[in-house]
Amino acid sequence: MSNVTAVKVRSGGGDPHTPVKSAERALAILELLTRHERPMTFTEIGQALQYPRSSLHGLLRTLVERGWAEFDPDQRAYSLGIRTLEAGNVYTRALGLVERALPLMERIRDTIDETVQLAVLDGLQNVYVAKVDGRQTLTLASEVGRRLPAHATGVGKVLLAGLSQEELEKRLAGVTLEAVTSRTITDKNLLREHLKHVRQRGFAVDNEEYTVGIRCVAVPIFDFSRHVVAAMSVSVPAIRFTPGHRQRAHMLLAEAARHLSAALGYRSAQ
Asked: 34: pLDDT confidence band, cut at 50, 70 and 90?
């Protein structure tokens, strides 16, 4: 392939633990495109990352030619490429998370006819990796691959509660929590206290904190190391979210979570 600027990886001498600048910059571009969820122009990427123009041109050209990014000539903008989807699919297949979870999610959906979702955590956002829709018409933002602010969702709060206190503080540092609805928790101290209760109870409830009119209950999924690696939730229109319905959804989720956690090697401490 002609005129390709390769991402340079040093070999031979030198400290093997020293970061390689060009590799770090290429990864930073992919992380930026991932966070923004929309195409970005060359100027926007340059302003966000402050890279030299010639270097940025070369890195973007390489990412496009290798399929990690796409360029839309009409919008003159860049977005994530097909290789990112392929890599993500390989990752979830390797973990076995989605394949193991879907039959359990379908069983919940078939029992109570509500929408069931599975998500993982990335920074302070939850990323949806699987979804099974009920027959009820719901306007939800939880499409597969979509990223939402974790502090405003049930699955997100479960995932944040699964972090160590040190890791939670690291991720919250210097961040302003967005008020998505009037019910969203935006005060960090209130969020810390809320996550303690989530941790103690073993589940979280989203009371119209991301979408007005929609509530949900969510539970954690554990792996062999007893870490929270995912969260599963049921979303319900607020008008149907009675205590009895919530309790039934929670019971079904908890049973599915036990099966899925066991499949991932989790064993409760005796």
From this structure: confident
Number of C-beta neighbours around residue 161 at 10 A: 23
Dist. CA 233–CA 155, nearest whole Å = 6
- Averaged pLDDT, 134-150: 77
Q: How many residues does the chain have?
A: 270
pLDDT above 90 covers what percent of the chain? 69
> In the predicted model, what is the mean pLDDT of residues 111-122?
93
- Ordered by where they begin, the domains of the chain are 21-85 (1.10.10.10), 96-263 (3.30.450.40)
Given pLDDT bands bounded at 50, 70 and 90, which one contains residue 97? confident
pLDDT tens digits along 46-62: 999 999 999 999 999 99
Secondary structure of 181-226 in HEC code, one letter for each residue: CCCCCCCHHHHHHHHHHHHHHCCEEEECCCCCCEEEEEEEEECCCC
Q: What's the sign of the alpha-carbon dihedral 223, 164, 151, 144?
A: negative
Token pair 């319900």 is found at 236
For residues 101 and 130, the answer to whether their CB atoms sit within 8 Å is yes
